[in-house]
Design goal:
CATH topology of the largest domain: Methylamine Dehydrogenase, Chain H
CATH superfamily of the largest domain: YVTN repeat-like/Quinoprotein amine dehydrogenase
Pfam family, one: DUF2139
CATH architecture of the largest domain: 7 Propeller
CATH class of the largest domain: Mainly Beta
Protein name: Phosphate transport system substrate-binding protein
Number of helices: 2
Largest sheet: 5 strands, antiparallel
Organism: Thermococcus camini
Radius of gyration: 22 Å
Number of strands: 41
Helix content: under 10%
Shape: globular
Number of domains: 2
Strand content: over 45%
């Protein structure tokens, strides 16, 4: 495969911190992606390497900035539909703020047959500090031959919108903030809730044939313990179930066929380590996605953005991991830096877009993108190979916000493929540790729990006698304790 550039250093693009490479989609011989915050849509002829770059000026005047930071893209027939949000033109102030009066939510369409771009739909409230809901996901409804737009990030016009892909006319279907969706059987599943005030609250399903909506609540966890702040990062469909990847784990199930959603704890560290600002794709009959170490962060200590604190967003506990889900198995298949932003499959290869820096917020705007972004090309056989060695190091003291919600169980570490996994505990006093063992089985089974006495000082717990996924819980909180989980 030919690409002119695989690495993209930061350039002019006023916004909050760093954007990334989003919306990777290979369709009809063309590879598309958007480079944010530069607001550049790239279209590459994979055979010849010829590349077209579009600057979103159909929305307004240059200089533009922004683009897409949620992977809003869909392909139908010869068309690639790509959405998101763009400042046209961008207005940056010296007090580290960006004005939003020229911020547009949008859907464009690229015709792969004649190499043309058309603006299909746009929306703006032309306000200096608030904006219309960004387009964070696009689903195709094959029965109604329309596009369903998910919109959560913004102050107005949130929810799910139906967009006529010929006329560009959009109408709201629901009005609650909706980050992501996926199609299962003959229904569209959407996760509803605000990602910066608690996360996913409920699922709404749209019967694509009858047009009927139903509402379902997330269920309990496989380990029987509470989970908190399930911010929704990506959704996917497989096995006639919906999979919603959230901070702390994944919710899987399908109430329309009699199976309630179950929460399976994965990489729950009570930080902002999450499958956020990344997509999920189907590969080999399973699902490939990523959990990210540093996707959104508060830059200045002492500042709170949307209720999220500096410590929670800047505590880096481990690498970002590429995860392959083929229930009941969950396997780590790659380890990366700060974050993975987009994943796609092309000609036996996996394209993995990455970034060294997170989004920031509020009064932390810059006149340029602050990250170094690149595309890593992997052979798709990594889903069949032994997983890479990884480790996670984390403080055992819970954040005050987590304590108040009854949190305490952490981990959710997939052991599949590892021969010598272990946990090293550094404790300030004697304690008891419970290990929960479970699989991502469908329908969900119950976890098996085993408790160990652990002493003040260094404790080594060999995990090779466990299988599947393991979570942990200390009987007493240890404000000075630390844990290191090593997978080899």
């Amino acid at each position: 495969m030919l690409m002119r550039n695989y690495r993209f250093p930061g350039r002019y693009g006023p916004e909050w911190g760093s954007g990334g490479i989003f919306g990777l989609r290979y369709h009809n011989g063309t590879l598309y992606f958007t480079l944010a915050f530069e607001a550049e849509a790239h279209f590459i002829d994979v055979k010849s390497g010829d590349e077209k770059v579009y600057d979103f000026t159909l929305l307004g005047d240059a200089p533009t900035s922004g683009g897409d930071t949620y992977n809003a893209v869909e392909a139908v027939d010869e068309f690639i539909y790509f959405g998101g949000w763009v400042h046209a033109p961008a207005v940056y102030r010296e007090d580290r703020r960006i004005l939003f009066r020229n911020k547009y939510s949008h859907v464009h369409v690229y015709d792969t047959e004649n190499d043309s771009i058309r603006l299909l739909w746009r929306d703006s409230i032309h306000h200096e500090t608030d904006w219309a809901g960004e387009v964070s996901d696009i689903l195709y409804d094959p029965y109604g031959d329309r596009l369903l737009l998910a919109r959560e990030d913004g102050h107005a016009n949130l929810g799910v919108y139906a967009l006529d892909r010929r006329t560009g006319k959009a109408e709201p279907l629901i009005h609650e903030p909706t980050p992501k969706g996926t199609t299962v059987h003959d229904a569209a599943f959407f996760g509803v809730g605000n990602n910066f005030t608690g996360g996913l609250r409920e699922f709404r399903t749209l019967d694509l044939v009858e047009g009927r909506w139903e509402t379902f609540k997330p269920g309990g966890s496989a380990d029987g313990r509470p989970y908190i702040r399930p911010e929704l990062g990506a959704m996917a469909s497989a096995y006639n179930r919906a999979f919603a990847f959230v901070r702390g784990g994944v919710l899987a199930g399908n109430p329309l066929m009699g199976e309630e959603f179950t929460f399976f704890r994965l990489f729950d560290f009570y930080t902002f380590y999450a499958p956020f600002r990344v997509n999920a794709i189907n590969v080999g009959g399973g699902i490939l996605t990523a959990f990210n170490a540093h996707h959104d962060a508060v830059y200045r200590p002492g500042f709170r953005d949307a209720g999220i604190e500096w410590n929670a967003t800047n505590t880096v506990v481990g690498p970002s991991v590429l995860l392959y889900i083929a229930p009941p198995m969950v396997r780590i298949v790659g380890a990366f830096g700060a974050r993975v932003t987009s994943i796609e499959k092309v000609g036996g290869k996996l394209l993995v877009a990455t970034n060294t820096a997170p989004n920031t917020g509020a009064t932390e705007a810059t006149p340029f993108d602050t990250g170094s972004r690149d595309v890593v090309v992997l052979d798709e056989r990594i889903i069949q190979e032994r997983p890479p060695a990884v480790s996670f190091s984390l403080p055992l003291a819970l954040p005050s916000a987590a304590k108040g919600l009854g949190a305490g169980t952490f981990g959710g570490i997939p052991l599949d493929g590892y021969c010598e996994p272990r946990m090293v505990l550094y404790l300030s006093s004697d304690n008891r540790l419970t290990v929960y063992e479970y699989n991502l089985s469908l329908p969900a089974g119950e976890a098996v729990a085993e408790t160990f006495d652990v002493k003040a000082g260094k404790n080594i717990l060999e995990l090779d006698s466990f299988s599947g996924i393991v979570g942990f819980e200390l009987e007493k909180e240890d404000m000075k304790g630390k844990a290191r989980i090593e997978l080899r």
